[in-house]
């Protein structure tokens, strides 16, 4: 989407034509919609502003987290 300047619909079709078996899940499509929105935001000088997909307080993968959950 970013490098080819495609919106979500066109990017999906582009990939689907090349790999018909794709079937992205609902959450991934939501992330792509969010990314599409961030691509459309522009700063005051006209450059694209890319926002992180995950909020700063999002839980991230951590081996320590997995080990602590396994012990419970």
TrEMBL record:
<feature type="compositionally biased region" description="Polar residues">
    <location>
        <begin position="56"/>
        <end position="72"/>
    </location>
</feature>
<dbReference type="GO" id="GO:0017017">
    <property type="term" value="F:MAP kinase tyrosine/serine/threonine phosphatase activity"/>
</dbReference>
<dbReference type="InterPro" id="IPR029021">
    <property type="entry name" value="Prot-tyrosine_phosphatase-like"/>
</dbReference>
<dbReference type="GO" id="GO:0008330">
    <property type="term" value="F:protein tyrosine/threonine phosphatase activity"/>
</dbReference>
<keyword id="KW-0904">Protein phosphatase</keyword>
<protein>
    <submittedName>
        <fullName>Uncharacterized protein</fullName>
    </submittedName>
</protein>
<keyword id="KW-0378">Hydrolase</keyword>
<dbReference type="GO" id="GO:0033550">
    <property type="term" value="F:MAP kinase tyrosine phosphatase activity"/>
</dbReference>
<feature type="region of interest" description="Disordered">
    <location>
        <begin position="46"/>
        <end position="72"/>
    </location>
</feature>
<dbReference type="GO" id="GO:0043409">
    <property type="term" value="P:negative regulation of MAPK cascade"/>
</dbReference>
<dbReference type="GO" id="GO:0005737">
    <property type="term" value="C:cytoplasm"/>
</dbReference>
